[in-house]
Here is the input.
Amino acid sequence: MNRTAAVRRRRAARAGQYLALLGYLVFLAFPLLWLLSTAFKPPRELASPDPGWIPLDPTLDNFRQAFDEQPLLRAAANSLTASVAAAVITVVIATPMAYVMARNHRSPLSRAATGWVVVSQAFPFVLVIIPLFLVLKNLYLINSLSGLIMVYVVWSLPFALWMLAGYARAVPRELEEAAAVDGAGRLRVLVSVTMPLLAPGLVATALFAFITAWNEFFFALVLLKTPQKQTMPVILTHFIGAEGVADLGPLAAASLLATLPSLVLFAVIQRRITSGTLAGAVKS
Amino acid sequence: MTCVTATTATARSDKSPARGAWFLVLPALLPILLLSVGPLLYGIALAFTDAQSGRTEPTEWTGLLNFQDLARDTLFWESFRIGLVWAVAVTVPQFVLALGLALLLVQNLRFRWLARALAIVPWAMPEVVVGIMWRLVYHPDAGVLNETLGTDRDWLGSLSTALPAVIVVGIWARLPQVTVTLLAALANVPRELHEAAAVDGAGAWRRFRTVTWPAIRPVALAISALSLIWNINSFALVYVLTGGGPGGRTRLPMLFAYEEAFGYGQFGYAAAMGCVLVAVVSVLLALFLVGRLKGDDV
Here is the structure.
């Protein structure tokens, strides 16, 4: 008797859990599905007073029109340039420092660097962007991708240092010492023992810096003035305005295209980033 | 004896890379100092000047004038209030929802892979795209929301619904990040303790209170503090959704400062706003650190 009651209760709990999961799935998925659906709808269906979830007559015209309306190719090239450059430079300059931080993690330098990582998460970029704007203006780096790349590098450095220091700590010191005993010089140890072991971490960090730069909007909005120089997110906002219903298709199509690169790369590194944030949150 | 050897060994290993370390550290340290620490200090200094864009006379020190003006600026305080409402109204429900989802996802449910996969997408999306996507959802004529509810509202354009509407988007946008972080924390909850508590007849709520929560508390605290700070500093989402409108109902402090600086060229005044925001965030950060230290003692 008692047992059947318990079983019944457990079943009810299960059902409740599935119901809750369904609620979450709907909340998470419906805006995404709507974006997807809008991107493939012809203007007639967009303007219909009774818009449906599935395009009845799916079309790629929205994508073509998006390229006609705004310089999307130019924007994609700008975004790609800025993101690749920022990612490569970040990793190249952060790796040596991260290595030093990992190997002397009790030195004042490492402590200061770790503190800076925490603080940098907190500061409002409005306080940084005004002086940066003035400085870059004096260097004639406003409306130039080089100026933006510099800002992106500095912006992703703290988190990159943090991630890389974590990976560097995981490289066993004994391996390096063994190689040194075998007569390898310091540089040789770094190049042929440490670097290969660090490679996955380097790739993950570079991808992270790439995604950060690819998605970034605020600095790009302030620093890039002409459409020829602007990156994807800034160009996307040009579609917005008093948009007629017919313009929603190209807007959705362009948004989808802008999301694809970060989505693909993010799927690759998501686990690593999670463990990175977590380690940072707990240990710091 | 062993003790002494140990200390000299660590001392040596700590020192030997330090000789060449400056050379290794410099490439990262220089940009940080020049483009991050420097501008921050410069920005704070600007708050005490009358710096404006495109002015011919030299910039002068004005002391606390900007801050006095700020104290009297009702528009700023309104924006500040909206910013606080936004930050709290996004962070708290987001945390509760994320905790619920994370607890569901550790259960052995079918379709949880789908939820995990879906959780990646909003995290990877550019904020601008998230904003555009929700504009499509909220669109008065072609939006799915009006279509589903059978209403005819301009969600983002009317005074009463604009702020709640952007808050929902704020919750959606970072729900995955908080969930995945909590999920990772839940993986460290000792299973045996859970089972032991269940055998002792502890109900689900009791098990959560006594076993799960203590184990995930540091991470939970860290991620909610971070997310509160991120939300206070948020810009792109609301810029795309409403641009601060209608009638300033969604004008977050960051949007306000951006307009002041790059719309009207009031660099000094905008920097003063930035300083106020930094002060608020620092207080929050300090509270968070104190909370964490206490948590460590337990």
In short: Chain A is about 80% helix and 0% strand. Residues 2-39 of chain A form the longest helix (38 residues). Confidence is low (pLDDT under 50) at residues 278-284 of chain A.
